[in-house]
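=== RUN LOG ===
request id: a7f3
mode: sequence -> structure
chains: 1
length: 158
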Amino acid sequence: MNLNEIQDLIKFVSKSGVSEVEIAQKDFKIIIKSAQKAKGADQPIYVQAAAPVQAAAPVAAPAATAPAAPAAPVAEDSKLITIKSPMIGTFYRSAGPDKASFVNVGDSISQGNTICIIEAMKLFNEIESEVSGRIVKVLVDDASPVEYDQPLFLVEPA
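=== RESULT ===
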């Protein structure tokens, strides 16, 4: 099972409302559980993967770029768009500690611009914007863990 298949499975679990999915194959086992919050809030997803049963060759996962974060309106009456995390991982605003941030508040972005990096399973995935506009707010601190579908940026569309 590759990284994209795992991400698709996580998306399915979050949208379907099931509380737990367990998949066991010859060389690994993955359990995805979701915990329900009160008042219909979004459900966090916890992924627990067991160690491989036997030594297997590592699966090559795409390291260049990950699918861009889905964009959704913050509220029906608001004109701002929320860029959300497409995966679980660690959020980085720049390519390195001594490098400048990809975007800052007030910067104009175009569709396809790299806006951040999310490290997942030792892979650094460049996240590209699906919208054009101006960054209004950065919602996550640098080097912080992020969940799937967690809001990262608020963008005023162009």
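=== NOTES ===
The CA atoms of residues 79 and 148 lie 23 Å apart.
Confidence is low (pLDDT under 50) at residues 37-41, 53-67, 73-77.
=== END ===
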